[in-house]
């Protein structure tokens, strides 16, 4: 950013107030993030996705249970054999059973399901980062809108004071007999117009201030004082060539990373879709305890080990159809990833062009303002000396007010364009995440798969 921009920025802001401490841009962003409903929803999506990882992983854990039963018969069950009688089932029969089972993941279905769920969790985290970046840009834009509106109020106030001064000058000249009464009427009308314009600008300021208060979770009419500053990442993108910004955006934008995770997760779905056509192996261990023995259960305790293996032969084409569906989902995910990349490249291209245009507009506005200030001063001097008509003064004042407003708009258009470029290039993407450094390797591996 040029030195002129920084000098103008240092002079912009609200009048100081002891009762309204200055709210920095970073503070406003943090408050908006904490208050955002979209971000809260995205955080809950991350929690849901992580819980799904544990849900899938539990399928491969050891399962166990204990059950018991007690039966009371109306009478003993007797059996005669070789002239002797035996009690087959006693009146009371109790059974206590303990079971352990373990799925043997010989086909890797459980591991694949866990991997898919983990990729979904990573995608949810990257989506959270993207929503956070959107909120940073939205808050930055609204923050600048408040500053712009405050400067517009200052311009309107300066215009009103200038017209009031012109009214005093025209009135004095008329009373001295060297001016015209119609000039007094014109000046009075211009003062009234300037008062209405100032009121309109003040209403605009109140409106955008309420919008910022709504974003940061404060009462809408809260008085806030702002200080102009740039969000992080703006200095970086301001000096980086456009082609390089596009490359950087395609590497670090959270939307790209999220789409890559979705593609990898969809690819895992092809393996999962074949589950009905793959063998299933499980290992079970059970034990029964009979407090009361009988002919049918002569021992107090019995233990058993079971190995179960099932091979599907005919499934009616279910696995094949599910696999075709999974492949279609992969193709859709890849198409979405490609669309996301093209959209991001276009965003960077347009944002970079907007910054270049805004810089040129700001430079032109600076030159126009200097010329308008000189023209206004000269017109006022000529009218005071009665060598120029009052219309020349009013035209010069209107041009000066327009030039001041144009410079304010050009300045904040440039700041907003720079913030949008930072967002488009990924410089605003949040670095805060629940993903730990330990998780980075699985992410990298998934992106290669």
Could you explain how this protein is built, in words?
The structure is a single chain. By secondary structure, the chain is of the alpha+beta class. The protein has a single domain (3-61, 107-278, 317-448), classed as Outer membrane efflux proteins (OEP). It is built from 11 helices and 8 strands. The protein has helices at 3-10, 25-35, 37-57, 109-175, 181-216, 234-238, 242-252, 254-273, 318-384, 390-425, 440-448, and strands at 22-23, 63-72, 77-81, 84-89, 92-104, 225-226, 280-289, 301-310. Strands 2-5-7-8 form a 4-stranded antiparallel β-sheet, with no helix packed on it. The protein has a two-stranded parallel sheet with strand order 1-6. The radius of gyration is 38 Å and the shape is elongated.
Give the overall shape, derived from the CA principal axes: elongated
Hey, roughly how much beta strand do the residues contain?
5-15%
Distance between the termini: 42 Å
**Which structural class should the secondary elements be placed in?**
alpha+beta
Key descriptive features of the protein:
449 residues; Outer membrane efflux proteins (OEP); four-stranded antiparallel sheet; two-stranded parallel ribbon
Secondary structure elements and pairings:
Layout lengths: L2 H8 L11 E2 L1 H11 L1 H21 L5 E10 L4 E5 L2 E6 L2 E13 L4 H67 L5 H36 L8 E2 L7 H5 L3 H11 L1 H20 L6 E10 L11 E10 L7 H67 L5 H36 L14 H9 L1
Helix pairs in contact: 2-4, 3-4, 4-5, 4-8, 4-10, 7-9, 8-9, 8-11, 9-10
